Amino acid sequence: YGYKWSEVYAQDMFSIFEENGVMDTKTGMKYRRVILEKGGTKEALDLVQEFLGRESNNKAFLKSMGL
């Protein structure tokens, strides 16, 4: 069950890269600054939401599953 949720969060974060371009420098730097540099200093879900700029949802995951 936990692995599926990690896929939901991963797809949601990747959707930001898809929107802005996978090689977009600003998006990559935001990911680095918010997710990688902060590491375990905050709850993981808080970091994900900070990166997304909104609450996480399952839309990108469902789309990736063809639903």
TrEMBL record:
GO molecular function, one term: metal ion binding
Gene3D superfamilies in the record: Neurolysin, domain 3
Gene Ontology cellular component annotations, sorted alphabetically: mitochondrial intermembrane space
UniProt-listed GO biological process terms: peptide metabolic process; proteolysis
Cofactors that this protein relies on: Zn(2+)
Stored SUPFAM superfamilies: Metalloproteases ('zincins'), catalytic domain
Segments forming a coiled coil: none
Keyword annotations of the record: Hydrolase, Metal-binding, Metalloprotease, Protease, Zinc
Chain ranges of the Peptidase M3A/M3B catalytic domain: 1-67
Cited Pfam families: Peptidase_M3 (PF01432)
InterPro entries: Neurolysin/TOP_dom2 (IPR024077), Pept_M3A_M3B (IPR045090), Pept_M3A_M3B_dom (IPR001567)
Family: Belongs to the peptidase M3 family.
This protein's name: Peptidase M3A/M3B catalytic domain-containing protein
